[in-house]
């Protein structure tokens, strides 16, 4: 039942990643659209995510936040969807899922904030430098349709979302490996469904607030 899986999001957020994962899973879910600065900061939602950020899910009464965690959790919670490799084959799955959620996102955020670590700082920063993180990510997807083995997985939802988003907004440079990997993922039916839902919600919001 949908009320067993509640999805808190805003279409103009990383919630698009979780939406795609939910569409891949195929289980019914109840979406709850929150607004920045209002319902995201209400006590009711802060009880779900004290950070007051989206996305979050509540599944059978248990809250999960952080996009990479949501992707990994849903893959395990709905094994029939086949979105996680067998436990013995999860090395690349965990490696690139959490590399992208950690060093890659940290490096991109630092760059957006005008922070470029010097040589000494790079030794202390987990991401080292943006160039190093992107080079490693490129190596992970070059010549591949899936980042972890031969089968599409939850890792592709997260890694693919970051690359897709980065290419769209210029936070990840256009490289043949990134473009080819993202192009394949954009053809997935669940990706298209998720985008259609969120794009429609964004259009509704913009129509309601034209200024």
List keywords for this structure.
single chain; alpha+beta; 2 domains; globular; 9 helices; 211 residues; 53% helix; Glutaredoxin; Glutathione S-transferase Yfyf (Class Pi), Chain A, domain 2; four-stranded mixed sheet
Describe the structure.
This protein has 211 residues and is α+β, with helices and mostly antiparallel strands. It has two domains: 2-82, Glutaredoxin (3-Layer(aba) Sandwich), CATH 3.40.30.10; 87-190, Glutathione S-transferase Yfyf (Class Pi), Chain A, domain 2 (Up-down Bundle), CATH 1.20.1050.10. It has helices at 15-25, 43-46, 67-77, 91-112, 119-124, 130-141, 154-169, 176-185, 189-208; strands at residues 5-9, 30-33, 56-59, 62-65. A four-stranded mixed β-sheet has the order 2-1-3-4, covered by helices on one side. Helix 3 packs antiparallel against helix 7 and helix 7 packs across helix 8 (176-185). The model has no long low-confidence stretch (mean pLDDT 96).
